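Task card 7
Instruction: Convert sequence to structure tokens.
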Amino acid sequence: MQASLNWQVFSNSNRNAVIDQLKDVISNNGGCIINSNMFSDLALSLSIEIEENSISKLHQALISIAQVSEFDSTAINSQSNKEWIIYLNVSFGGGTGDLKKEIASVPG
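Output:
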């Protein structure tokens, strides 16, 4: 079984901007998003696959863009390239719970 971590992220910033920043931070720090689920405009969950030696670096980078739950780096082997899964639950403080996506009508 693959080792895993659960992190909570909170931001009051613009949801779309935060999502773009998260994607950049994750990819620039050795992570790969393998699954995502959007829950209205209130929350987003991401499953991230990452090598163990990149976990601490990713956590520090996430702190620079949002509030992130505590992380005990002593449980991580910074020399290991074992694959881990990080379950990232992102909450957006400015959400209303009423996300609507407008879809343009297509003729024909």
